[in-house]
């Protein structure tokens, strides 16, 4: 249970850090900011007030937050310091929406703020560096975030020894160590934070959160008595403010305490209070964390059906399940719960989803060599398959040509006969039209059949290679890694044999790479969660620092045949690849919508465009394969391109195959 709590607490803890730390008595604070925006005539106080209001509302009301941010921008008036602060708060706005964008604006803010040698500038830089690490955490990992805090944020805050910022950073450092099971080290940093905050800021929100994090850490150490002391201190701070949005966090820590002390019945009303506050202030992720703890308690009380309903509700609501680690945990718990309820078949289904998701989590770092080997092998197999199909196509074309030759000979005879009888001439013309129509129908059917064979062959080959890599080579490499790990735990010392563990890490990265290759060949998210989720994952895969992709899905149904979903996925994949690789676009808009049996795809980019006759002069098979898939779905495609960018509109008929 301890391990499970630590896993799920990650998202609670980091939701704390992405928040603005504001006074516990929120309303006077907000009123004072609003008063500045309406009465103060100076640009700087007004800009600061609007920025702080934007930061406060960013997770409560995104539209209002954006409005306040842009209002603050109007008061910059060529002030470079305010311009840097605007970049910082814009990054704050994007932090929980688009981490890649947030990271870019944090970098701009740090660059601008570094030109000023003031306390406010240094502390803002410290906060920007820390938030930049949070934004990059999913991409770079926890060691990167830890390095940023220790080498960038804390040195800036330490210049002002007893600042709130330093106490806050010690608390967040403790949270990271706590999540990584370094509980004693986390306790030391919480103690450092308390030494600063209790003495200098005894009624601050920073102190309140430090008490809660300390209580959580003691809960994970199963030290309920010490946790209770911290909770009591936090309760004393928050009790005068029952309308504060941070009450939900207090009740979450109290829930952990009840679970630690095995007071399951007492925990349920605490959870309900926490859910009330979380929903009141739109803290959706935190609300789902409460529901997860509610499930755990109901399961312990053997109320299996209620527990199952709560867990399935978490999956449906999606806030918690969007993260793959959380979704994997939920699948595992549903498998265990189904087994306890005596439903072995359902337990197996959830276990299979858990196992599949475990593999898909290892898709972040791609190894170039394996990708090259796979691409070379896949290309050779594809060329062999295409050569076979082209030979079949030529044979069929010969047969059609023979039929055409026969018909032309017959036509010649009929033309001679028309010199004698006009009646026979009219009959001949009618027969000729009918024959040509039949030939066209035959050609069209044969071309569609050939296209289907090519596409089916490609997908079968992709699936076979993905299965061989995943089940064959992947299983062998995973077995080698497990054997090495088992042997090293009893024969090697982690500090003395660091080179061995570095090589073991490289082997682990190779296994992750191989699974990523297999996933690219056959998109697992499409098979498990449907077309919309697969397209969202595809867009997120391509997004990087210099590339923004805006994906919009409208009315996509989940019951489309898998073959149609797969063809649409390949069409979008080719369109995105063209925009990124050939057009060198930095901004892409992708819209996919469904209306009955019509499926529309629109993609716009700001790339360099291409010439109208590119499909005739280019040797690339990408555009040809794209047209084959569009024709296979009886669709039509329009392309508009110039030096300002390219727009592609595709309309597909998905009424069966």
CATH architecture assignment name of the largest domain: Alpha Horseshoe
> Looking across the biggest beta sheet, what order are the strands in?
1-2-3-5-4
Distance between the termini: 50 Å
- Characterize the largest beta sheet: strand count, sense, and whether it forms a barrel: 5 strands, mixed
Which runs of at least 5 residues are low in confidence (pLDDT < 50)? Answer: 1-19, 363-381
Which CATH class of the largest domain applies here? Mainly Alpha
CATH fold label of the largest domain: Serine Threonine Protein Phosphatase 5, Tetratricopeptide repeat
Residues in β-strands, percent: 5-15%
Count of separate DSSP helical elements: 26
The helix content, as a percent range, equals over 70%
Mean pLDDT: 80
Strand segment tally: 5
Structural class: alpha+beta
Question: Mind telling me the CATH superfamily name of the largest domain?
Answer: Tetratricopeptide repeat domain
Q: Give me the Rg, rounded.
A: 31 Å
* Domains, number: 4
Q: Please tell me what the overall shape is.
A: elongated
Domain Histidine kinase: 464-656
Catalytic activity: ATP + protein L-histidine = ADP + protein N-phospho-L-histidine
Organism: Chryseobacterium rhizosphaerae
Enzyme class: transferase
What's the helix and strand layout?
Layout: H1 2-17, H2 26-39, H3 43-57, H4 62-73, H5 80-94, H6 99-113, H7 119-140, H8 142-158, H9 164-179, H10 183-200, H11 205-220, H12 224-238, H13 247-260, H14 264-280, H15 284-300, H16 304-317, H17 324-340, H18 344-360, H19 368-418, H20 422-491, H21 498-521, H22 524-529, H23 531-542, E1 548-554, H24 562-582, E2 587-595, E3 598-605, H25 614-617, H26 622-632, E4 636-642, E5 645-653
Parallel strand pairs: 1-2
Antiparallel strand pairs: 2-3, 3-5, 4-5
Helix pairs in contact: 1-9, 2-3, 3-4, 3-5, 4-5, 5-6, 5-7, 6-7, 7-8, 8-9, 9-10, 9-11, 10-11, 11-12, 11-13, 12-13, 13-14, 13-15, 14-15, 15-16, 16-17, 17-18, 19-20, 20-21, 20-26, 23-24, 24-26
InterPro entries: HATPase_C_sf, HATPase_dom, His_kinase_dom, Sensor_HK_TwoCompSys, Sig_transdc_His_kin_sub3_dim/P, TPR-like_helical_dom_sf
Organism: Chryseobacterium rhizosphaerae
Protein name: histidine kinase
